[in-house]
Write a structure and sequence with these properties.
binds adenosine-5'-triphosphate; alpha/beta; 14 strands; ATP binding; ATP hydrolysis activity; nodulation; 11 helices; 311 residues; ABC_transporter_ATP-binding; disordered C terminus
């Protein structure tokens, strides 16, 4: 595991009487993409706004590169790049003017601005648009300019709030590729509602529900969060359903079509091997066996407490 760039300790916030987030703790390391998931009103924006220094928390601490954000916000914010849901673009500026202005707002030393702006233009593949007014760019390129302003000061930590919202499928692919490139040497925190996006670009997941952190782990751990409870087997020379049911402590066998069965089971790591062995031993002519995993939507629903059980 790499060094920690962001450390969130016992973070709680209430807007009036009700707590929006409560006792959130996590760390983000120096590169890769962390997806921040949660239903509407779960507390994602509250958490992101606090981490970016836009909102002051009621309780707890946030450290950016070891600096306490509340005690030393100007210094800590030098390490943060933020693309809010609505990119803060000045439509009547050219791309270059806008990026220079962004570098100035980030308190970059004047002698470093030229190089920084050129690097951001190159990284986001918008060099050829440097003199174009932002209002004359397509939505996908405006989004690239939004990302360029978030990285122009080369921050260690980049926060992107729904960066592919409203883009067409080709632009979405381009922006996802760009995010992956940025994540090679930056820590990226990405908020999105699109689970396929999480699967496509995130290395880690943090999920907030009702103001609490309900999941924190790798994409693979998220994928395996719910153990499989069924598999489908196809046999060319299938025995009677009751024979399949008697093989082990199954929950049930469902006939799906000729020679195709869905077998439900409770935790049993060796169950598929038992069926493969029995197929060979009894010459059942095994054609296919597929373990049925939960979809990301189902895992999301379980973690957000919308379903207690998939069956
Ligand atoms: N300015 C505010 N004043 C009062 N309550 C607020 C304010 N902003 C958010 N809340 C409440 O705090 C809770 C968390 O909201 P938040 O916007 O952080 O959720 P979210 O996960 O970002 O939701 P969404 O995905 O819909 O943007 C919700 O109950 C919301 O109604």
């Amino acid at each position: 595991m790499g060094n920690s760039i962001v450390k969130v300790c016992n973070l709680s916030h209430r807007y009036s009487v009700q707590w929006a987030i409560r006792n959130i703790n996590f760390e983000i390391t120096e590169n890769g993409v962390v997806g921040l998931l949660g239903s509407n009103g779960a507390g994602k924006s509250t958490t992101m706004n606090i981490i970016c220094g836009v909102l002051n928390q009621t309780e707890g601490d946030v450290f950016i590169n070891g600096i306490n954000l509340r005690e030393n916000p100007v210094e800590a914010k030098k390490y943060i790049g933020f693309l809010p849901q609505q990119p803060p673009l000045y439509m009547d500026l050219t791309v270059e003017e806008y990026l220079r202005h962004s570098a100035f707002l980030r308190l970059m030393p004047a002698e470093e601005v030229d190089v920084a702006v050129n690097q951001a233009l190159e990284r986001c593949s918008i060099v050829h648009f440097r003199e174009r007014l932002i209002k004359n760019l397509s939505g996908g390129y405006q989004q690239r300019v939004g990302i360029a302003q978030a990285i122009v000061h080369n921050p260690k930590f980049v926060v992107l709030d729904e960066p592919t919202n409203g883009l067409d499928p080709n632009q979405i692919v381009d922006i996802r590729n760009l995010i992956r490139e940025i994540a090679v040497d930056h820590a990226v925190l990405l908020s999105t509602h699109i689970l396929s996006e999480v699967q496509a670009i995130c290395d880690e997941i943090k999920m907030i529900e009702n103001g609490k952190l309900v999941f924190s782990g790798s994409m693979e751990e998220f994928d395996n969060y719910v153990a499989p409870e069924s598999f489908v087997i196809e046999l060319g020379n299938a025995p009677n359903k009751s024979v399949l049911l008697s093989l082990c402590e199954n929950e049930g066998v469902e006939l799906l079509g000729e020679g195709r069965f869905r077998i439900y089971f409770k935790e049993d790591p060796g169950i598929t091997e038992k069926y493969i062995e029995a197929s060979v031993f009894n010459a059942w002519d095994l054609k296919d066996l597929i373990v049925e995993r939960c979809s990301l939507d189902e895992i999301f629903a379980q973690l957000s407490g919308k379903t207690k059980n998939r069956k």
